[in-house]
């Protein structure tokens, strides 16, 4: 590991492939849209106007209107806020749970270590949807259900990937040197271990965010996620589906928004993996030209 | 092989136990009073107490758990707290929709993933291969709900070939009609899961193509394609078996959403309704059955893989 000096080259490798570029730009556009929608949307996403209901795409309603005359483009723009919120929230929780379980599974006494490893293996069998149902049976549906369910579900995945990494670098010279120079285990973890597993970690995080966006759509559709008054792509999809027989094309837009976002996070994760995996580095050729790694089978979501 | 089966079986039992404890605890030890939550804000203290007693929530947790799991081991998953119906009986009845749906979905997924995955690997570097791989990436990112809606738009609303939703009231009395009701749901799950599996098949094929035994066969005079098909495919098949467990989990989860979308009276729809009414006993029984299915299929898949793979058989001897 060369530390900070390798960072610009990772970014350059990331931008060198079409997939990485696509992923980065779409994620940037969505974050921008979410920010802009806080200040401005073409129409008020909540404003109903029965006179102009079910308008086809055109001017001034670029993507048309729904049953109550709400502007679909504005609804999608406002919904991107929920998407960003859920993705970031789930990412934070997955990070915390994954690091905690990973560290417990790698750095503690043998007995604790093995128990945590078995627990992680069992938890992997719990799909995000089932975790979400467990939470919403007791607490009812809300966006927090989505955030926690994806956070827990993916935190376990992160733990499974970071555990062997932590064990691998645990005995490196710099970690032993840190210990010898009097760092506490926690200081050592933060200063020496975490920077070394960061690449693996960021890749997982990107995939966790893809899962979060999918889960938000599925869970909100089932009624366990966003409430009907929240601006959300999943809720919008559920709303429009009820009139699919009469106005079939309206469901295209929120679905497309979800698909493109998920695709972007997936491609970004793949590109990050290729850019950070030292085994894929072949001289000065960009990593995207090198052999592509194994595709992952993502966690079962909704 | 026997030793492996025993070790793996012990792991399965441990997994089922841990899963049952986790499901049980998750539904009880969440912060707050479960009985109060179930009764709602407007309930009188007497109503809350009644729910507490009815569910046995006033007993120690260990006793509650042992009571539940003891029943499960005798095939008794408890009764609904709303209408007193047997959970196991209802599950068995709903399985008549969900099991055929899951089987059909898996079939569709394999029919998409295997030929196109192998094809996309053999066409690597050519335009057609790139198109296939990109299409699979894109379809794998589609939310199952939306995939179902788009199929409804095309096949039910525009072409009017298939019903948009519903299942015959008399179940499988008319097999043709019941099957017809399952076509679009199975296509929905199968397409999305198939796209995920396709990318895996592709990479397994590429890996097989670079194996020594395939290269040797090619060196001895077979064309590369024939060498791959004759000698590489068994290895690809084995790789597919290893991920079938994950696939089945995906299909079970997909069926929850799809049954809701197509209003099919299956286990998934039952589960969604019970979570909505907070029928604790039913939810914990249903979730245990679903998680148990995922774990058991994972176990069977591991055994089959072990039995079929000659490299692993040799490791045993």
Low-pLDDT windows of residues of chain B: none
Round the mean pLDDT of chain A to the nearest integer and report it: 81
What class would the helix/strand composition of chain B place it in? mainly alpha
The biggest beta sheet of chain A is recorded as: none
Q: Give the count of helical stretches of chain B.
A: 13
- Overall strand count of chain A: 0
Shape label of chain A: elongated
Regarding quaternary structure, what we see is heterodimer
Q: Mind explaining what this structure looks like?
A:
Chain A has ten helices and no strands. Chain A has helices at residues 7-16, 18-39, 72-107, 110-123, 128-139, 143-170, 173-180, 185-222, 233-241, 252-276. In chain A, helix 2 crosses helix 10 (252-276), helix 4 (110-123) crosses helix 6 and helix 9 packs antiparallel against helix 10. The longest helix of chain A has 38 residues, at 185-222. Chain A is an all-alpha fold. Chain B starts with a helix and ends with a helix. Chain B contains 13 helices and no strands. In chain B, helix 6 (127-140) crosses helix 8, helix 7 crosses helix 8 and helix 7 (144-158) packs across helix 10. The mean pLDDT of chain B is 86. Chain B is mainly α and 317 residues long. Chain B is 78% helix and 0% strand. Chains A and B meet through helix 4, helix 5, helix 8, helix 9 and helix 10 of A and helix 1, helix 6, helix 7, helix 8 and helix 10 of B.
């Amino acid at each position: 590991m060369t530390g900070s000096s390798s960072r610009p080259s990772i970014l350059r490798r990331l931008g060198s492939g079409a997939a990485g570029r696509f992923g980065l730009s779409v994620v940037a556009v969505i974050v921008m849209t979410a920010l802009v929608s806080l200040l401005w949307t073409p129409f008020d996403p909540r404003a109903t106007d029965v006179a102009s209901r079910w308008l086809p795409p055109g001017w001034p309603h670029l993507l048309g209107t729904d049953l109550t005359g709400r502007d679909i483009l504005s609804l999608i723009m406002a919904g991107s806020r929920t998407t960003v919120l859920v993705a970031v929230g789930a990412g934070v929780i997955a990070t915390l749970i994954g690091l905690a379980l990973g560290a417990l599974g790698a750095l503690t006494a043998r007995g604790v270590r093995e128990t945590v490893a078995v627990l992680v293996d069992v938890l992997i069998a719990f799909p995000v949807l089932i975790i979400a149902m467990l939470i919403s049976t007791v607490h009812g549906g809300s966006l927090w259900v989505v955030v926690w369910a994806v956070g827990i579900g993916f935190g376990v995945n992160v733990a499974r990937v970071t555990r062997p990494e932590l064990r691998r670098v645990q005995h490196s010279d710099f970690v032993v040197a840190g210990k010898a120079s009097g760092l506490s285990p926690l200081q050592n973890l933060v200063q020496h271990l975490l920077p070394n597993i960061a690449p693996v970690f960021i890749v997982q995080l990107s995939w966790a965010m893809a899962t979060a966006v999918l889960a938000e759509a599925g869970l909100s559709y089932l009624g366990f996620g966003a409430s009907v008054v929240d601006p959300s792509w999943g809720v919008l999809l559920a709303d429009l589906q009820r009139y699919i027989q009469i106005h079939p094309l309206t469901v295209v837009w929120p679905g497309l928004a979800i698909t493109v976002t998920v695709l972007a996070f997936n491609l970004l994760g793949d590109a990050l993996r290729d850019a950070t995996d030292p085994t894929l580095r072949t001289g000065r050729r960009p990593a995207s030209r090198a052999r592509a790694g194994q595709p992952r089978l993502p966690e079962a979501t909704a | 092989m026997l030793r492996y089966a025993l070790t793996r079986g012990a792991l399965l039992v441990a997994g089922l136990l841990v899963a049952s404890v986790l499901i049980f605890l998750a539904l009880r030890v969440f912060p707050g009073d479960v009985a109060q939550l179930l009764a709602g804000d407007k309930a009188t203290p007497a109503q809350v107490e009644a729910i507490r007693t009815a569910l046995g929530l006033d007993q120690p947790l260990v006793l509650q758990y042992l009571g539940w799991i003891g029943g499960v081991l005798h095939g008794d998953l408890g009764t609904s707290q709303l209408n007193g119906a047997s959970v196991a009986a209802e599950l068995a009845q709903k399985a008549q929709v969900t099991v055929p749906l899951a089987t059909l979905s898996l079939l569709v997924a394999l029919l998409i993933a295997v030929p196109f995955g192998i094809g996309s690997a053999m066409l690597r570097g050519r335009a057609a291969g790139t198109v296939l791989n990109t299409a699979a990436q894109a379809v794998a990112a589609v939310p199952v709900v939306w995939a179902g809606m788009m199929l409804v738009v095309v096949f039910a609303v525009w072409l009017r070939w298939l019903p948009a939703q519903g299942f015959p009231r008399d179940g499988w009395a008319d097999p043709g009609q019941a099957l017809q009701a399952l076509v679009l749901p199975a296509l929905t799950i199968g397409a999305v899961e198939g796209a995920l599996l396709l990318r895996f098949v592709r990479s397994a094929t590429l890996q097989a193509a670079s194996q020594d035994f395939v290269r040797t066969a090619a060196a001895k005079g077979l064309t590369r394609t024939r060498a791959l098909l004759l000698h590489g495919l068994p290895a690809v098949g084995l790789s597919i078996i290893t991920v079938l467990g994950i696939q089945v989990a995906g299909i079970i989860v997909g069926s929850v959403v799809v049954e809701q979308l197509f209003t099919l009276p299956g286990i998934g729809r039952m589960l969604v309704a019970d979570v909505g009414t907070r029928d604790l006993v039913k939810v914990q029984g249903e979730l245990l059955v679903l998680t148990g299915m995922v774990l058991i299929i994972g176990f069977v898949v591991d055994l089959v893989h072990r039995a079929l793979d000659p490299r692993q058989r040799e490791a045993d001897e």
